[in-house]
Amino acid sequence: MRRTPTTLTAVLLALAALLLGTSAPASARAGTASARAGTATAALTLEAAFPAPGNGWAKVERYLDTTPGFRTEQFPSDGRGDQDGARRTYFGTGEPSSGRFLLYSATGWDTGSRATPVLLVHGANDNADRAWANPGESGTCGAATCPSTGLAQYLAGTGHRVFAIGFAHKHGDNLLQAQAVGDAIALIRARLGAPQVDVVAWSKGEVAARAYVSSVRPSWGRAYAGDVRRLVTLGGPNGGLDYVYAHGWSFDLATWPACGGTANAPSPHLYMTCYGTYTAQPCLGVLPAGGYDCYPGQRQLLARWDGRYGVDGSAQDWWTTYYGGQGFYTSGQGIQAAIDAGSLIAPLQQAGIPAAVRTYLLAGGSADIPGVLNENRGPSDGIVFTASALDTTGIATVGGTRLLSGLDHLELGWAPEAESQVDAWLG
After folding, report:
1. Looking at the predicted structure, is the pLDDT value of residue 363 above 60?
2. 19 to each of 70, 94, 209, 210, 406, how far by Cα in Å?
3. Using CA atoms, how far apart are residues 123 and 208, in angstroms rounded to an integer?
4. CA torsion 43→68→128→212, rounded to 10°?
5. How many angstroms from the chain centroid is the CA of residue 16?
6. DSSP sequence for 112-136
7. What proportion of the chain, given as a percentage, has pLDDT over 90?
8. What is the mean pLDDT of residues 169-177?
9. What is the pLDDT of residues 20-39, one digit of tens each?
10. 3-state DSSP call for residue 29?
């Protein structure tokens, strides 16, 4: 049995730091948006506030959405997916209900000169502090050295009134997180009296943001309120990704407890032989199994790219990992079963982003995230294929696209050229 390379576990721990256009007059749209915003804020309870939290934030607040339908999602029992650092304090627990979210207000939120406020939406295994305000907080930012400030401070410095959301679950259900995005927008609008908000979403956060503006929602969820002016995506999997299945062996070694793995990332397998023992770890699967479903948000990002870029044939059990079945050391259902169980990529593309939401797509072209098994089957930012990040399928009004070939997936959130491009798109 192969052993876990010491660096690989650490690498994949950082890996995941790595988802309303109408013909009515503008006045009618504004009235409808205000009514919907009122409905959203009526369900919200301010539970706690933290003044002067540092990292360029003026305050952090915790809200609870009391709408029936929210739930506490499942967390791995060994604590790898729990909230940590300051977020544990803000949430008051390591495993909060997904009805709770954090609203960060950057310095200048009440004094900035730009008319339209900005909401920043982070990605998987991340948080608003590391993603937007202190890229080096976790020790890795996609480069050898990390800056001490990020996009939040940059945009605040150019006059934007900046906010960020913090999600309860690091790999949570994007439909639940989309409802939280709507909540955060409603709060910002109510606080500032702004008719609309600009949204900047990174990586997995793009799927949650896109689900909100596309009204892709649970049966109990609120529809899009027409309150987003512009949507900017940074390395967003607009066309989906299949990284976990194409490079599944490395994920198993880094995540599987019986093999010494501790990374908070999903496995494409249900069973794996570790040190001669065939073991099961259903909570770590991409697919629900044995009553466990700890990574629903990752399942929702899936799309097949094997037809375009193939599969990593050098990996152990590569065929059965991607297509399903029993391999030499592993067993799983394969990517298509996972897609069928709830990917949101096709539904989001079919639902479409309304024409009134001008959308911008930023992609990286450098697969050089230090220490990470970068996605190398085709042009990528190390995690997301460039073609996926720039996929405009279902986007009615494309305001602009750009490939920053020298940036990897993590650098898209803080590199100067990315920051200036986002600022230019926000106008």
Report:
1. yes
2. 18, 24, 6, 5, 24
3. 9
4. -90
5. 9
6. ---SS-EEEE--TT--HIIIII-TT
7. 85
8. 98
9. 233 333 333 344 455 556 66
10. helix
SS3 at position 89? helix
Q: What is the DSSP string of 251-314?
A: HHHHH-GGGT---S--BS-SEEEETTEEEE-GGGBSS-BTTB-S-HHHHTTB---HHHH---TT
Show contacts of 248-253: CB within 8 Å, 24+ apart: 248/315, 248/317, 248/318, 248/321, 248/322, 248/330, 248/332, 249/315, 249/316, 249/317, 249/318, 249/321, 249/330, 250/8, 250/12, 250/315, 250/373, 251/12, 252/330, 253/2, 253/4, 253/5, 253/8, 253/9
What does the alpha-carbon distance between residue 379 and residue 387 come to, in Å, rounded to a whole number? 8
Q: Which residues of 111-149 are buried (b: 16+ CB within 10 A; e: fewer)?
A: ebebebbbbbbbbbbbbbbbbbbbbbbbebbbbeebeeb
Q: Which two tokens stand for residue 287?
A: 């697919």
Per-residue pLDDT of 215-246, as tens digits, reads 999 999 999 999 999 999 999 999 999 999 99
Q: What is the DSSP pairing of strand 162-167 with strand 118-121? A: parallel
Give the largest CA-CA distance in the chain. 68
Q: With contact defined as beta carbons under 8 Å apart, do 55 and 134 qualify?
A: yes
Q: Could you tell me where the beta strands, DSSP code E, fall in 127-187?
A: 162-167
Q: How far is CA 274 from the centre of its chain?
A: 31
What is the number of other CB atoms lying within 10 angstroms of the CB of residue 241?
Answer: 25
d(CA 296, CA 294) in angstroms, rounded, equals 6
Q: Enter the tokens of residue 356.
A: 């009134």
Q: Which residues pair with 164 in a beta bridge?
A: 104, 120
Mean pLDDT across the chain: 91
According to DSSP, the residues that pair with 199 across neighbouring strands are: 119, 231
Report d(CA 411, CA 282) in Å as an integer. Answer: 33
- Contact status, residue 416 vs residue 399, Cβ threshold 8 Å: no
Give the count of beta carbons closer than 10 Å to the beta carbon of residue 51. Answer: 9
How much is the average pLDDT of 271-286? 93
If we measure between CA atoms, which residue out of 242, 223, 241, 254 comes closest to residue 351? 223
Task: Categorize the per-residue pLDDT at 252 as very low, low, confident or very high, splitting at 50, 70 and 90.
Answer: confident
Q: Is the pLDDT of residue 15 over 80?
A: no
Q: What's the DSSP call for residue 2?
A: P
pLDDT digits (tens, 9 = 90+) for 127-169: 999 999 999 998 889 999 999 999 999 999 999 999 999 999 9
Write down the pLDDT at residue 5: 39
